[in-house]
Design brief:
alpha+beta; Immunoglobulin-like; 3 domains; four-stranded antiparallel beta sheet; 17 strands
Length: 287
């Protein structure tokens, strides 16, 4: 079965061709999502006997579709695919790393790709956040910092955003807030003068955030988490760290070489740490 990433747009085509000859007919399409809910995407009659449609994989699981034709030709054609969450991406590509290292062959591609993965996950560990976007909104729980502010994980768009609160402190989030009840920060996606930042804080405007004496989280945020685009310094830091990781195959104790000052240890890289410092988040860690 074909596997596609959650959030992908799937384009499908149906051709009505009895005896190999394209023929127009009355065509219908039913798409069934993993929960069993059906829908009827818009069908485009592209040309004689050719029909196109598209739908978005909004939830993980197996999706089915069935084309049916009637009238001049009676026929049924079915298809299916699996929608799954994509694995965490790397913050630089294999081609970018190879260009930086001046490597043109493919013999060491698997080791280079592993180095990129190691570097990317290491950046997330150092920064306490990740820099790739979710394609579908999911719910997470948070406790307010105080009555006016709640710090949340990074989310890159207000599309699909839902904020609900637990006023009773019983673990049920029954009151959904209007968008006028809170503001998203940082304003205009600018943080310390740098644009392109996601939202990571909600400020109350018409009331206060409920707090629970039981330490139960009282705020539920449904959002598309992550960053819309990888910042340039994160990409470059990934290349530097991947290079070091790749070269450590010949330096198992972290010593790359020696100079007049003694052993050169690759595990300490002040240049990389200075690049990552502005992106470190000590307030909210990824759930």
């Amino acid at each position: 079965m074909t596997t596609r990433d959650l959030g992908d747009r799937v384009e499908i085509r149906y051709q009505v061709q009895p005896d190999g000859v394209l023929t127009d007919a009355t065509v219908a399409l039913v798409v069934t999502d993993p929960a069993g809910t059906t829908s009827n995407p818009t069908i485009t009659h592209t040309s004689t006997g050719v029909y196109d449609a598209a739908f978005t994989l909004a939830s993980a699981g197996v999706w089915f579709w069935a084309w049916t034709s009637s009238g001049a030709v009676v026929d049924v054609e079915t298809g299916s695919l699996l929608a799954s969450n994509p694995g965490p991406p790397t913050y630089a590509t294999l081609s970018e790393l190879k260009a930086y290292l001046g490597i043109t062959d493919t013999a060491e591609d698997p080791q280079l790709q592993d180095s990129l993965i190691t570097a990317s996950r290491g950046i997330e560990h150092i920064c306490g956040r990740r820099f790739w976007p979710d394609q579908a909104a999911t719910a997470r729980l948070f406790s307010p910092r105080d009555a006016d502010v709640v710090n949340v994980d990074d989310f890159y768009t207000s599309t699909g955003l839902v904020v609900a609160v637990d006023d009773a402190g019983d673990g049920t989030y029954t009151r959904t807030l209007a968008s006028t009840d809170y503001v998203l920060e940082p304003f205009n996606g600018v943080n310390d003068g740098e644009p392109g930042w996601p939202y990571y804080r909600l400020g109350a405007t018409t009331g206060t955030w409920p707090c629970s004496r039981s330490r139960r989280p009282t705020v539920q945020v449904t959002a598309k988490w992550g960053w819309a685009a990888v910042p340039g310094p994160i990409k470059q830091a990934c290349v530097y760290l991947a290079e070091e990781t790749f070269k450590m195959k010949g330096s198992p104790f972290g010593v790359a070489a020696t100079d007049q000052f003694g052993p050169i240890r690759m595990r300490n890289n002040p240049k990389v740490m200075s690049m990552l410092a502005p992106y470190q988040d000590s307030v909210v860690m990824m759930a």
